[in-house]
Amino acid sequence: GQNIDQPTEMTATEGAIVQINCTYQTSGFNGLFWYQQHAGEAPTFLSYNVLDGLEEKGRFSSFLSRSKGYSYLLLKELQMKDSASYLCAVRDRDYKLSFGAGTTVTVRA
Amino acid sequence: IAGITQAPTSQILAAGRRMTLRCTQDMRHNAMYWYRQDLGLGLRLIHYSNTAGTTGKGEVPDGYSVSRANTDDFPLTLASAVPSQTSVYFCASSPAGGSYNEQFFGPGTRLTVL
Q: Which of A8, A36, B30, B42 is the most exposed place for a label (fewest CB within 10 A)?
């Protein structure tokens, strides 16, 4: 099984940078995903890491260290529309996802 | 292209009643999943299907059943609903195999069991 931890809430100012950490313990690691979920909506895919290192996609970047069981999602140049919940999910060798409880990010003007 | 659709959008159900949540995808994805999302607990996998004709149990399968008669449809049935099954239910799908394949989520069904 998987044990996934991420902070419950974070607050940041518009234009700033926020880093959301995720730690995991897994019996069979096969990739780590980050999803964004706005209130009342479905989760949408943000990023995927399976090898160690940084993956950059525009204002969003995700980092993975498999030896440390650690990932982070970096949100740069924060905008009001980035206020949402961010979900860390670990995939096992059967291609099933286990999700953390999510981090609610509030962007203030 | 609709992607994944779920029905109903929301439902209030009396305890003890039977209920089927519907999920249909038009992306020809082999794998489909059902999750429930509860405040503070995140998304938890109920059942999954890697291909038509096969199903498997997830983290919280008790009280739920699924079937996968074809590629497109993956209904979730609550045989006798209980208040603890009050939740938001999300269906998801994914292409089978491969390393990059993310899951695509439907809009969700908000279920209240009284």
A: A8
